[in-house]
Design goal:
- Keywords: Phosphoprotein.
- This is Stage 0 sporulation protein A homolog.
- By secondary structure, the protein is of the alpha/beta class.
- The chain has two domains: 104 residues, Response regulator (Rossmann fold, 3-Layer(aba) Sandwich); 132 residues, no CATH class.
- Helix content is 58%, strand content 10%.
- The chain has a five-stranded parallel beta sheet, with helices on both faces.
- Helix 4 links the parallel strand 4 and strand 5.
- The chain is globular.
Length: 280
């Protein structure tokens, strides 16, 4: 992964560069203390991940991310700030950031966030490649052996177990859906969950509800893990790969009693992420 670092404090970019290089997280292809200069740089350098400050003198980080996404729509963005304003953070997520890191920098947290964003970006690219293959390739006459077709099952079951939902009725339905998608070489991009469930039951709405309930229980379990230990391995691995991190944060706020709204789940994204994860 190639990283570009932007902060009006050169000390911050130096610290981030050390973290990335010393811990073999990727290559720092460029740094800057000026947002306008950074926009010119990323057009040429084409980084995979951009880490930017929120508050800068000539251009705020949210505006920068919006402009950067126009240049590199597939780049992932991580935002840094001492400001903890909920409205500003939500605005940043709406403009396309993947994660938010609170200043002053904690090297352990920064490393885990960078690893998570890198992993998620790799998953997204894998999914895109899979979609391209499904669209462009011709079906081969030789089918994989049943044993090879089922190699993904233990991985899928482990993920559901780590989410704490393997015993949920909806988990069996999730496994059924994932098996179908893999064996039929499909994804859920161009269909609905209701349509998928219709392949297996005369009551697709009931099956769909079980799946949504299981996915929601998984988010609740992750949120509790995050409240107990923000650096929990399961939390950092799945909070922004199977789910949207901002929505997991909302679920955490609901549990704390700070809001009366649960986090929202995009079920197709959840299933697509499971599809990729169990085949890696």
């Amino acid at each position: 992964m190639k990283f570009y670092l932007l902060d009006d404090d050169r000390t911050i970019t130096n610290i981030l560069k050390i973290i990335i290089q010393k811990r073999n997280l990727g290559e720092v292809c460029g740094t800057s203390t000026h947002a306008v200069e950074a926009l010119e740089d990323i057009r040429i350098l084409k980084p995979d991940i951009i880490i930017t400050d929120l508050l800068m003198p000539e251009m705020d980080g949210i505006t920068f991310v919006k402009k950067a996404k126009e240049i590199l729509p597939d780049a992932a963005c991580i935002m840094l700030s001492q400001v903890a304003s909920k409205d500003m953070i939500e605005n940043a997520y709406e403009e396309g950031i993947e994660f938010y890191i609170q200043k002053p920098l904690n090297s352990v947290e920064a490393e885990k966030v960078i690893q998570t964003v890198s992993r998620n970006l790799s998953m997204q690219r894998t999914l895109q490649k899979m979609q391209n293959i499904f669209e462009d390739s011709v079906q081969t006459s030789v089918s994989p052996t049943p044993q090879k077709q089922k190699d993904y099952l233990p991985k899928l079951q482990k993920i559901l177990q780590r989410l704490g939902i393997i015993g949920d009725a909806g988990s069996k339905d999730i496994i059924t859906i994932i098996e179908y998608l893999i064996e039929e070489k499909e994804d859920v991009t161009n269909t609905t969950l209701h349509e998928l469930c219709s392949h297996f039951t005369d009551s697709p709405k009931t099956m769909e509800q079980r799946i949504r309930r299981a996915a929601a229980n998984g988010m609740v379990n992750l949120a509790h893990l995050g409240l107990e230990d923000y650096g929990n391995e399961i939390f950092t691995e799945y909070a922004n790969s199977l789910y949207n991190f901002e929505q997991v944060r909302k679920e955490m706020d609901f549990i704390r009693g700070k809001t009366n709204k649960h986090g929202n789940i995009k079920i197709r994204n959840f299933l697509n992420a499971l599809l990729i994860s169990c085949q890696e």
